[in-house]
Amino acid sequence: MKLVKSDFFKNASLLFSGSLIAQGIGFGALYFLGRMYSPEDFGEVETLMKIAGVFIAIAGLRYEMAIVVEEDNHNASDLLRLSLFINAVISFLLLIVIGIFQIPIAHFFKLQNQQLLLFLPLIIWLTSSTESIVLWRNRTKSYPKISTNRIIFSLSGTTYKLIHPLMQWMGNGLFQGQLLGQGIALIHMVYQLPFKIFSTTKHQLITLAKTYRKFPYFSSPAALLNILATSMPVFIIASFDGQEATGYFSNAYKLTYLPMSMLSLALGQVFFERIARLRNNKEEAGSMAHQLINTLYVIGIVPVLVLWVWGDQIAPMILGEQWEETGIYIQIIILFYFTMFLTSSFSSAFETYQKLPFQLSYNFLFLISTFTALYLGYTIGGSTRIALTWFAITGIVLRLAILNYFFVLFGKNMFVKTIFAVLITGGLGYLGFTIRDLIS
Predict the structure, then answer these.
(1) What is the pLDDT of residue 4?
(2) How crowded is residue 413: how many other Cβ atoms within 10 Å of its Cβ?
């Protein structure tokens, strides 16, 4: 199967075009936001959103991931209803928990505006509901709708973030903009949904819950472990070094992995839909996956190398002079985010090939390894830079390992190609730093 001769890239381009515009809005706004808000403001929002992300990953107990896999449309619509119902229940229970433990949570993460914690259940409900409906739209190949939704989310949220300081409104405008954007995105995604949300029976929902019980049993804990692992730098930095350092890391993430993740998400959603249909045809599945990894590497290698070599100069140019530390963080973590970019598009293989127990084990290993690297980086190394270096090295090794496992599932061997890609990337990086030294 040739991707260029199929509708794969056509569908992916629809999603990516929306992501590109959305990221263009957010990226362009960073030039102003970096000068309008402090590192502490960014750090506070990043901490809150990472906490929310942990619960968003499991708010529907991962039943939403079965929407694309399920072959019957009626059952798929009931899976959407089931995930939305569970999400509402979990969000409400979380509100009660936060109300009880608000002060110790704020103290642990060094949050100044602890009242913002009370809004976390709302943003969890909004985001998880939107993502569940996006998966339904993905199943029906409503890619223009999904693409437009990302633009609406970015435009509405970013507009508010820019206006907030000018109007001298109270509170953290970055967080308020995030909340507003997500609310508008959900309204847009629900609009003209081709069935009634509550048109189902309790018996049908229970039957589907039992049929796909592997998702809450294995995929849900695996998703929780994965988001904890990828969010661990924010949690550890906030706890050890405070919200200023967290803010530096937050914008390092926004300038590196966030733009890459939009492309990998677009390709990954289309890949998920396609691989679910081809899972019994390893020749076509392997060929499609092989072409996709080549495309991802070629697209990503140049901007990654530029940020690796000149990140400490680029960040202050974009965000302002106070963000020099962000540039150093970029140089430390960019290769890890590159491996995340290469692997994220294929993560649906766990659900497609029903390897949920293995996914759970891998994510547990990833969490323990990255936590240990960060913790020792602080307790032994004594600084955020060292902690991030140990975290990045550990993450790179584990991400490359899981990439090779995915290709085993697809029927392809990637070991030799992985070694070759590592050597090429290292050689180009060495050349880049040599050129930099000669220029300076």
Answers:
(1) 46
(2) 11
